[in-house]
Amino acid sequence: MPGESTKRSDRHRQYWRANIRLIVVLLTVWAAVSFGCSILFVEQLNAFTIGQLPLGFWFAQQGAIYVFVILVFVYAWSMDRLDRKFGVAE
Amino acid sequence: MTLAMLAQAASTAQSGTDDTRVFTYIFVTITFIAYLYIGWRSRVRESGGFYVAGRGVPAIANGAATAADWMSAASFISMAGLISFMGYDGSIYLLGWTGGYVLLALLLAPYLRKFGKYTVPDFVGERYYSETARVVAAIAAIFVSVTYVAGQMRGVGIVFSRFLEVPIWEGVVVGMVIVGFFAILGGMKGITWTQVVQYGVLIFAFLIPAVALSRMLTGYSIPQIGFTASDITTKLNQIQTDLGFAEYTQPFANKSKLDVFCITFALMVGTAGLPHVIVRFYTTASVKAARWSAVWALFFIAILYTTAPALASFARYNLLHSIEGRTVAEVDGLAWVQSWRRTGLLVYADKNDDGKITFAPGEAFLTGDDNKPDVNQPNPESVNEVYADRDIIVLATPEVARLAPWVIALVATGGLAAALSTAAGLLLVISSSIAHDLYFHFVDPKAPESRRVLVGRLTILLGICVAGWFGVHPPGFVAQVVAFAFGLAASSFFPIILLGIFDARTNRTGAVCGMITGLLFTAIYILGNYSVKIFGTTEPLMGRWCFGISAEGIGAVGCLVNFVITFVISRMTAPPPASVQKLVESVRIPAGPSKIESHFDESDAWADNP
């Protein structure tokens, strides 16, 4: 049925748009911690400390990596929900 | 003889080195038997099992296997040492080699898993309906993997020679036989399950000495906490400043901000584009499992990658603290100093005869014929009296912390696990590129299943021999070659795979032009900058004319060039055929069949569907 297939491709388009939105948000955070906090603004952040380490240095050698793990976790978790919501799970 | 008796015999032995050797033999034998057993248990007869482990690997196991695949002898042995000497600037490796997984998990892995098939060139060839693109991708994959695997075999040889005191070539041969056994018999399936075990071995071996050193120097059991909460780095900064070095935490001491930015970017994008990493995500059971296995992989990698900078700072403090300003007799009396001095990786001499050892910036010694610092040729231009190879930082840590000999043996076993697991993954990519992408596509498309697996096994054997040869006779520019591998992966694979998924309008002409320009630009810049080492010219053929970016970071620019050219040329030429647009739509949606039949000609679909 043509109507059925248009509906399905609409759903697929919406699913893809939701996926892109999620990716943009997560990659913005990714760029902010890795290139922002750890490299571009490291000197400014080093004026602060966390524990006894300068904050920018801590981001570059510890913090950014923790954030990366959280980002991929959030992505996998949110995509599971999107898959179910749009009925595209395997 | 029971283990308890062996342990007793070992502990009563006079010299610590003998104990270590006994334990190393025990651990290495036990782990090698385990690898061989797993290889035997997972032997396969079909292409699906051989190249992608039958696509039945659970997410957590694939995550552990990916982590072991990714963390090589360099991550295990050299990285903490590099950071130790570079301070803040060493963050490029930490950020680059973990941040790339975010790109991989969000932008590539799930879609490539949905695409199915066996290799990265498979995707490039089908998405861009071009056999030329497939060949370029296959050759790039082979080049990247061969440069990489040579370093792994070298790592195996070094660990053997240091801990078991056999010649490097014998160690390399033993490593070749072990990898050969489980990779040839079990293909991807054998490799996957051995890598899961190897991850366990290597992470355990990395953490135990790091925890011990953290307790010794900071009083905290968790190295990450000791690093952050204690005053160790403050004290280290003080010592560094006193000796005339830059502060350990000072950013951009040796590299410009732009260079740090570009290198980090190139390493991230290169990581996401490395074929042996991408192909691991083909082995999961579903798209969902591919996403979760990326989570597990990064989690497992992060355990080592957040421990390494802590260890680097502790080790740097310890090295300076135990050598600088001490009398020659005091330094001579340190057991770990003596055992590493014998290997030539730690060299010191009282150049100015003041009875004390001075640590200062600059090279302490000129290099001899073998390219190693020669104790008999002091460098008159520096007051520095110590040369410490960065590789000893991790390997010497347990001895420095006066840990039991079995811990030292464990570190050796972990180094071997790291090197062997990465070597196995790389060998499979070399094999699948030659056998699957080149041989069956162009020479023998009608090959029956049994011959496919046989050729796969033979190409692994060929790969092992090449890797072994490079392991025994390493080219003089190994470090530069690694920059090459990442630069080429960043400037070739990443942009066209990404656009292939996210931009349905990208076509063959755009992709081929983009890939060729990106590759040529990056390759010429790296070759030009390293021409002294690679071609033996007296002057570099090319300076850092591109905003002063170093050869390590130029892959970032090459990646950008590839992106822009692919995008623009695709818009100027005809859109890809409808079947390819359909393929793009299908990889974006987890549900539905993963194999789209025949995109551009009959023989191809036939070749891939035995």
Protein architecture, described:
- The complex is a heterodimer of chains A (90) and B (610).
- Chain A is mostly helical.
- Chain A has one domain (2-85).
- Chain A has helices at residues 2-40, 42-45, 55-85, and strands at residues 49-50, 53-54.
- In chain A, strands 1-2 form a two-stranded antiparallel sheet.
- In chain A, β1 (49-50) and β2 (53-54) form a beta hairpin.
- In chain A, α1 (2-40) runs antiparallel to α3 (55-85).
- The mean pLDDT of chain A is 94.
- Chain B is built from 26 helices and 4 strands.
- Chain B has a two-stranded antiparallel sheet. In chain B, strands 2-3 form a two-stranded antiparallel sheet.
- The longest helix of chain B is centred in the first third of the chain and has 51 residues, at 168-218.
- Residues 1-15 and 596-610 of chain B have low confidence and may be disordered.
- At the A-B interface, α1, β2 and α3 of A face α6, α10, α12 and α14 of B.
Keywords:
heterodimer, A: 90 residues, mainly alpha, two-stranded antiparallel ribbon, 2 strands, 4% strand, B: 610 residues, Sodium/glucose cotransporter, two-stranded antiparallel sheet, globular, disordered C terminus
Proportion in β-strands of chain A: under 5%
Poorly predicted sequence stretches spanning 5 or more consecutive residues of chain A: none
The largest sheet of chain A has its strands arranged as: 1-2
- CATH class identity of the largest domain in chain B: Mainly Alpha
The radius of gyration over CA of chain A amounts to 19 Å
Residue fraction in strands of chain B: under 5%
The major beta sheet of chain A can be summarized as:
2 strands, antiparallel
Count of domains of chain B: 3
CATH superfamily membership of the largest domain in chain B: Sodium/glucose cotransporter
Helical fraction of chain A equals over 70%
Our Rg estimate of chain B from Cα atoms comes to: 25 Å
Count of DSSP strands of chain A: 2
Give the name of the CATH architecture of the largest domain in chain B: Up-down Bundle
